[in-house]
Amino acid sequence: MKKLFLLFIAFLLVSSSFAQHFFDTDFNTRKKYIILCDPTVHRIKTIQYLTNANLLSVKKNKVKFVGVYYKGQKYDFSETQKYIEENHLDNFFLHEIDGELTKENIYTENDITDELRKVFSNSIGVIFFGGPDIQPELYCEDNSLSVVTDPGRHLYECSFIFHLLGGSQNESFQPFLTERPDYTVTGFCLGMQTMNVGTGGTLIQDIPAEIYNTNTPEETVGIGRANLHRNYWQLIEEDPLFMGINLHTIQFTDNTFWGKDVRVAKNSTPRIYSSHHQAVENLGKGLSVTCLSPDGKIIEGIKHNTYPHVFAVQFHPEVSALYEDLGLKIFLPKDEPKSYHDILSKSDIRFHESYWNYISESFKKTKKPKRH
């Protein structure tokens, strides 16, 4: 009996390890695979919502999702594996990447280059999600106002972006997308910042301090709600109804991304979900600005000048509360409580739906990798 028990435990360990190295298995090459970086349980639930609501429109029988993460990240991805197994999700898989990553080797061929190529060669695109601050040393600055909680994640994701797109840090490196320029790369919030840093750009470490010269929450709220990229009132007064985010408008630049690529009215100023204190400063190699904050001081969207399906936004179009009533919140102390969905207009919702339609079409237009 003891021998059988040990064999069972060994089987479980092998199964778990096997399941987290998806692209090393005998996977179905007839399917299309979209890569999810930082595939926490929350991320999996987000993609479930987006696909079930048909915002991210994919054919579930043909398109699968693979969460690709770095072993050196803080999150315990066995929780994700457990969630996938307990909910019998047959369209989500995991793949772990391991290897030594340092600030000196992430912008060149390194220990994970072969694994990244394997992931790229078997997928049609990748989504980079939001999260904590990138360590400024990755864009050659000292840390003055950043709070870095998961350095391993940023080493991996910045290196992934660099391998995909190249960057000014190493002009001789040939990025993966030179082989498949229609590959889709997109991201939200930190995802956009990672795209910028990974291609050689820099970040504003704290918007209130560096752009508006404010040093306290009281000073910061004085710059006006339209210029706040999260809610600082929650640091001044106590109220469980305070939203931690802001819903502010954006404006489009002359870039044709909004208007021609994403079918929205060029003169519109849609309201979006904003939750960040850092932002793009100097642009990375090959990137252009697509939209700005109301005062024009903060970059809200970027796209690549060469690769048609590489684009990202500073805001969060993936949040389910934008599309349905999920709770009442206030921004200012005297506000009437409303849901995020109620605060947005119908045209704001249509803007987000149009953006998701464009993301979906980008994935559909990306050709399946050729099998040799």
Q: What are the defining features of this structure?
A:
single chain; 372 residues; alpha/beta; Rossmann fold; nine-stranded mixed sheet; 10 helices; globular; disordered N terminus
In short:
The chain is an alpha/beta fold and 372 residues long. The protein is 28% helix and 16% strand.
Notes on the structure:
Mean pLDDT is 94; it is low at 1-19. The chain is 28% helix and 16% strand. Helix 5 crosses helix 6. The chain is built from 10 helices and 13 strands. The protein has a domain at 19-205 and 274-322 and 345-365: Rossmann fold, CATH 3.40.50.880. With 372 residues, it is α/β, with parallel strands linked by helices. The strands form 3 sheets. The protein has a 9-stranded mixed β-sheet with strand order 3-2-1-4-5-13-12-11-8, sandwiched between helices. The protein has a two-stranded antiparallel sheet with strand order 6-10. It starts with a helix and ends in a 7-residue tail after the last helix.
